[in-house]
Amino acid sequence: MEKEKNSYLSLIIIHVILGIALYYVPFTSTLYSITAFIIGAFYIIINKNKNNEALHVSAYIVGAEVLMRMTNGIPFYEMGKYAVIIYMLLGIFFSSFVKFSGIYFFYILLLIPSIFISTENLSHETNIRKAIAFNLSGPICLGICAIYCLRREITIKSILKLLTIAVYPIVSMIAYIFVYTPSSISELVKNTASNAAASGGFGPNQVSTVLGLGMFLLFCQVLLNSKNKFLLITNICLLLVTTYRGLITFSRGGIITGLAMIVILTSVIYFSVNFKAKGKILSIIIGAFILGIGVWTYSSIQTSGLIENRYANKDALGREKESALTGRENLMETELQMFIDNPLFGVGVGRNKEIREEETGIELVTHSEVTRLLAEHGVFGLVALLILIFVPLSLYPTNRENL
């Protein structure tokens, strides 16, 4: 236990130093990114994926991808997803997959027809390869991961290791953000819009998403993986700092999602354990609630109350905003209309952005993968979406012990 504690704390400190180095020595980011990708592949190959190494190194890249983007460490934008695909394929090569995973091969095939539509319809100014890669790398990565993971046995110890590994690069991101914005937050926040300055100079949506994930991962550490008081205090401090930095990005999606994940996890575990364990979990819930109020109060003071207006969907003067989704509902509406107009094959991969700009003048990419699938892939996208929703649900009745 002492060895595990020292290893965890040492890696936390190393990643804090890494985050600082990424700011002061920019070239570190390229070196870090390339090294992480190569070591990940070798780690799987050397161990022949005997202990699900593919999952562990993929978890690290998931935690690190936005950090690599915001520090300009990767040669192309979707490199993180390509790395995960490679790791999963290596894992499948060494560990195979179950026959039932053919449903996810079918899911990937459903994404192909709209590629032919887009090659015919995308404008000449658009880089077709980039448009297709940008829009399909995520869904295909998800499909490959599903093929690897379906009905694969994994121990709780391995899951906890996976969750821990994903924390480390998020710690680096927090360190980087603190160095990037050393001045008072009150000087940076003037309204209730998403704040790039408080997000390390990068997109608040993406930073908020990763910090929301960090909140969930660190809560898992507090709840399931803090074997002594020192580790418990360390993880609580990291959780509070991550929550605070996530809140002051002023991007709500990642934080709300992180909180929802925490509530679901806690509920599932609470109703799955004995009476004695329920008492322990209840004490953690009460403690987390009190600390959460403290972080919220501190964030409100630091932002002169603007964070309260942001989450209440009000502007800096306290007036109710017209849109509860900052205009995203307009994007979703246009994509649903494209699905209605092109129900069979959709408008083609990457084409929805061009059509929206032509018809409405809105120059924004989609903010909803659900409506994008429908708009660009038509009924094929609808079937793909149903597979993603109902295949996992169909497995639950036969394996209810699996938290």
Model description:
The protein has helices at residues 2-24, 27-47, 53-70, 79-95, 102-109, 113-121, 128-149, 156-180, 185-188, 204-224, 229-247, 252-270, 275-302, 306-311, 328-341, 351-360, 369-395. With 403 residues, it is mainly α. The longest helix has 28 residues, at 275-302. The radius of gyration is 22 Å and the shape is globular. The model has no long low-confidence stretch (mean pLDDT 86).
| Helical percentage | over 70%
The major β-sheet equals:
none
Portion of residues in beta strands equals under 5%
- Number of helical regions: 17
Features of this protein?
72% helix, 403 residues
In short:
The chain is mainly alpha-helical and 403 residues long. Helices cover 72% and strands 0% of the residues. It contains 17 helices and no strands.
